[in-house]
Amino acid sequence: RAKLDGRDGSYTFNKELAEASSQKLLRIEDLRRALLQDEIILHYQPQKNLKTGALTGVEALVRWQHPKEGLIAPAQFVPLAEETGLILDLGLAVLVKACRQAKAWQDEGLVPVRMSVNMSTRQFQEPGLPKLVAAVLEETGLDPRWLEIEITESLIMKNVEAAVTRMGELTQLGLSLALDDFGTGYSSLSMLKRFPLTRLKIDRSFISEIPEDEDSMAIVSAVISLGQKLGLVVLAEGVETQAQADYLRQAGCEEVQGYLEGRPMPAAELRRTLP
Ligand code: C2E
Ligand code: MG
Ligand code: MG
Ligand code: MG
């Protein structure tokens, strides 16, 4: 085969393609195994009030604790999970772990913190989602008001009507909703008022341009004042420097999340910072 196909170089090309897809299949199998063997873990990143410095919540961020490869970031496996449908099992595992953790901290007598959990399109659109979330809350014993679900603009924009309905079903359970990575999608600002959101998370790509880029700063300021007018809590993502925090404070931003305040960390580590 090598000889036949190899003359014009196509053999090499095809071989690479074939290897790529078999690599992918192996990865999918490995992820399936990881879910069964509970290699999915969560790190938690603090979200703080910019004025008082008080902890207002934590975001649960998934990692794969791989036996051979070590800790794997979500960008390396969440898209694959979405593509294959494994995200439904993965997402459920994340939700259960996050709710359980929040409840455990409360049971220890720590000040209750809101737990934010990311949700992908596939999960969000799943017909049984509201019932599933209700069951997880029931089983873990977490009061729904301490749970927040983060969704993205692109997810909403796929089908606005269906998304509004689904958001209503979720908020009816007593939890809150945040719009993640705001500014990267296509939703018009005026559409925001149609959605039952509590929190607006300005995407890191705008924050990282502060204080060098005038345009980004203008956008950030506009989003903050619009968010406030709509009664939303505005949170800036990816705040890394004091200069960024200072700018955001004077622009009226209420909350921040980023390396400046704390990186995503294991539960035990975050536990030590809890009041
Ligand atoms: P995201 O929800 O926007 O989460 C914020 C990401 O920014 C996290 O990356 C976090 O570690 C990173 N980050 C936070 N502060 C800073 C900062 O100051 N500087 C920089 N450079 N980065 C910062 P991570 O943990 O790698 O997660 C990436 C994305 O993967 C998340 O973006 C989210 O879209 C997705 N993801 C994570 N966990 C889950 C999950 O449980 N389910 C789903 N469906 N997606 C998840
Ligand atoms: Mg998020
Ligand atoms: Mg985000
Ligand atoms: Mg982001």
TrEMBL record:
<feature type="domain" description="EAL">
    <location>
        <begin position="24"/>
        <end position="275"/>
    </location>
</feature>
<protein>
    <submittedName>
        <fullName>GGDEF and EAL domain-containing protein</fullName>
    </submittedName>
</protein>
